[in-house]
């Protein structure tokens, strides 16, 4: 084989006699490190916490609906708080919170109402557009047919005289 200018011939590298031993040592060292790291991680690793008792209600983000009995009890406590002058601030805060909640509920209802209205308007608009497109397609077909009939040999519809005589 002749070598051309600018080309180099690649040769296979020869393995060193002790290279396999070095590689095995590195692999063993790596696996030892991984085992050590995994044992450390296992000590620090904790699985999901299980909460028991009354604390379950506090961890939930969404507020559950109270039963009627609890609602009545809460209302009684509020009535008692109204009578006690020291708890007036708490009562004011709770009333403000309830008003704010009602206001937000109204806003939410309005938003849902407007969204439904928008959806129905879009559906009606779409139905109208589809109907118009269908009508336009029909008109195009009729125009195309009439254009075909305008050619030679088709002089249009047969016209008879008004008196019924043959022409």
Automatic annotation (TrEMBL):
Biased composition (Basic and acidic residues): 17-43, 68-138
Keyword Ribosomal protein: no
Gene Ontology molecular functions: DNA binding; RNA binding
Domain Ribosomal RNA-processing protein 14/surfeit locus protein 6 C-terminal: 89-141
Keywords from the named record: Nucleus
UniProt feature, compositional bias: Basic residues: 1-16
One GO cellular component term: nucleolus
Gene Ontology biological process terms from the UniProt entry: ribosomal large subunit biogenesis; ribosomal small subunit biogenesis
Protein localization: Nucleus
Chain residue ranges for the region called Disordered: 1-167
Family: Belongs to the SURF6 family.
PANTHER family documented for this protein: SURFEIT LOCUS PROTEIN 6
Name the UniProt record assigns to this protein: Ribosomal RNA-processing protein 14/surfeit locus protein 6 C-terminal domain-containing protein
């Amino acid at each position: 084989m002749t070598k051309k200018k600018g080309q180099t011939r690649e040769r296979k590298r020869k393995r060193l006699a002790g290279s396999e031993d070095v590689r095995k040592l590195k692999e063993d060292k790596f696996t030892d490190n991984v085992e050590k790291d995994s044992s450390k991680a296992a000590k620090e690793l904790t699985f999901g916490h299980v909460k028991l008792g009354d604390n379950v209600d506090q961890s939930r983000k969404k507020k559950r609906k109270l039963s009627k009995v609890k609602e009545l009890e809460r209302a009684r406590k509020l009535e008692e708080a109204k009578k006690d002058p020291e708890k007036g601030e708490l009562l004011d805060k709770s009333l403000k919170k309830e008003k704010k909640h009602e206001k937000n509920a109204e806003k939410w209802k309005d938003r849902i109402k407007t969204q439904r209205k928008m959806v129905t308007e879009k559906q009606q608009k779409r139905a109208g557009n589809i109907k118009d497109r269908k009508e336009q397609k029909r008109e195009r077909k009729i125009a195309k047919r009439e254009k075909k009939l305008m050619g030679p040999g088709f002089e249009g519809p047969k016209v008879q005289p008004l008196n019924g005589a043959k022409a």
